[in-house]
Model the fold of this input.
Amino acid sequence: MSEIPGDLKFAKSHEWVRVESDGSVTVGISDHAQESLGDLVYVELPEVGSSVEAGAGTAVVESVKAASDIYAPVSGEVIAVNTALSDKPETINEDAYGEGWIFKLKMSDKSQLDDLLTPDEYAEVAESDDH
Amino acid sequence: MTQKTELNATHRELGARMVDFGGWDMPIAYGSQIEEHHAVRKDAGMFDVSHMTVVDLGGDRTREFLRKLVANNVDKLAKTGKALYTCMLDENGGVVDDLIVYFLREDFFRLVVNAATRDKDLAWIEKQAAPFGVTVRERPEFGMIAVQGPNAREKLIGLLPEEVREKARKLGKFAAIEVEGPNGMPLFLARTGYTGEDGFEVVVPNARVVELWNLLREAGVAPAGLGARDTLRLEAGMNLYGQDMDESVTPWEAALAWTISLDEGRDFIGRAALEKQKADGVQRTMVGLVMDDKGVLRHGQKVLTAAGEGEILSGGFAPTLGKSVAFARVPVGELGSVRVDIRGREIPVRVVKFPFVRDGQPMPGIAG
Done:
């Protein structure tokens, strides 16, 4: 498995969150998650402007094997979606922590970030997943 | 307790992602499932199918027994080595399993049945065989490797001793021979498969499976997992037992009418029920669907038609087409504009004939 960037936080359900300099957050799925799912062939993105609650199904990624819900790690308003994924869903397989981001949120409650996992904590979750 | 094939450690060394499949620990993919799919369509790939069950039938009345056991007619098997795809049915015409029957001698036929249905199949076959004095012998001492793709046969033939190559090259489609393999290993070589490509399914003693696998790898045959096997067979329009048919479905309802032989005077199990259903009118049918919109058709999704609701059976992404295809069971009648309910949205689909792909190419009208 590739290195997990140190500035990320994770949900147990395998999404990552990066807090940007403007205070918004970018969300994607972990490298471990994309590897488990296998080749991605479709991403269903949320509507820009919609409000989401932490833990709510917000996007769907489909691999050759299965469909999988992507949950919002924190509550907020969707302010951007990665439309490039519509034509190239495999970008998530290739660069899960970079070009493969899925949506951006304007957080409604910054304290929810404290509930998320550090990269080390998440690495343990991912590892126990493999057994 | 999960069962393992002789190749289990080999799969793990190759970095395969393993899953439980019908009680067996099997590789779903070694790397990219889509690349494995394309390797089979364009060159040569191989699958460990040692989990499949080889059953040998013996006795003077074996052919007579098979006339009763299966819905297709084993009298089509006249030449030694010839194979037949068929279903065995219960008294209601429901599908107990689909299988391949090989004719080896009048007193020796070989069956290859599904792994997930092994116990049920063996019990059913033994029960039916008893009155015929036919012996039923499972052959767990064999493994099986399916070598598939346009270059698969030549790659395997290249490993055979010089003197048997011509014989292997001449083997016709849907037939099998016993030949000496590399380093003296005995092979049962069948020109069959589950991918829509040419190739062989090779039965080999357990003790030699890993050796054959490694020789095939050195010959440039790419390991492929059960994930690719599933997308390949779906594109090729081939049914999967348990998903496309089971005991609650007759062959009429599963696009398997071509495997039923209603020849005169042959009283196979389930025949009366099939004839009655046909006379009364078959109410459901299995059709092919192509979705031109983005997204993936999946097992269990609801299908909306003018004739009523149906459901997706096997469905998935078809790598050769770059879009999703499926089999669906729908009511018989005028279907009108057909949609599939995906997470509450109605997505239009086209009803098409299958196979979707043959010999590496989309069939006419499938790509859209």
Summary: The domain at 9-109 of chain A is CATH 2.40.50.100 (OB fold (Dihydrolipoamide Acetyltransferase, E2P)). Chain A has one domain: 9-109. The helical segments of chain A are 31-37, 84-87, 91-94, 119-129.
